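Thread: Newbie trying to understand structure tokens

Hi all, I'm a second-year student working on a class project, and my supervisor (Dr. K.) asked me to get a predicted structure for one chain before our next meeting. I've only ever worked with sequences, so writing a 3D structure as a token string is new to me. If someone could post the tokens and maybe explain what I'm looking at, I'd be very grateful. Here's the chain:
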Amino acid sequence: MINYTDKAIIITGGGSGLGRAAALSIAKQGGKLVLVDMNKDGLEESKNEILAAAPEASVELVTANVTNEEEVKNYVQFTLDTFGKIDGFFNNAGIEGKQNPTEDYGSDEFEKVVNVNLNGVFYGMKHVLKVMKEQGFGSIVNTASVGGIRGVGNQSGYAASKHGVVGLTRNSGVEYGQFGISINAIAPGAIMTPMVEGSLRQIGGDNWEAVGTEFVSVNPMKRFGKPEEVGNLVTFLLSDAAKFINASVIPIDGGQSYKY
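---
Reply by user tm_fold:
Sure, no problem. This is what the structure looks like when written as tokens:
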């Protein structure tokens, strides 16, 4: 049984995709939410969808840029001021960036992707961990990717940043397990989110759906994953039921990581 009653959870990237799916799942289990995103409209859409499914849910919204450490400190402090603690943190905000071979990959683009996907994750962990260490409890789930455990062509910035998230997760899990804190990462494969659709459009333009069909044909399960499937995994990992899972990276990709 998973029960989030009276648990305060921060979710970055909460305005769409995996963040919204995890928020919806956790809200249905009674969790109190602070959703963080740069997209204010997306945050409002997430809140409306959550309240439609769970009318009694407590949902707070914070518009913030995860690459700005002061804004990260602010959403952490807002959660403390509002709920008095932080039980869980889905450190999820990320971008994919443009697709190009490494030799043609723009330096500015590389820095942009790494800044969001790795620096943003680090800032979040840094300031949430201070709170959780003082509390003596807490759970963190970082969003890595199959691109963090294997190569993905034409995505140097994305792959480098997600490999960094994997390393940061494993290192921090080893450091902070002694304080009652579990830190893990998920490694999603092709999940049909706005970001994945954008990637397919980069490749295929108006023919993106056909590109998607071809892409998943090599997946052992022959389909895209659903955001709610990832949301369910995050809900489990942030719960008390998963307390002894630590410093782990868990693929959710239909077996894509293991297929040659």
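A couple of things are worth pointing out once you decode it. Residues 8-258 form a domain with the Rossmann fold fold (CATH 3.40.50.720). The CA atoms of residues 139 and 238 lie 5 Å apart. Feel free to ask follow-ups in this thread.
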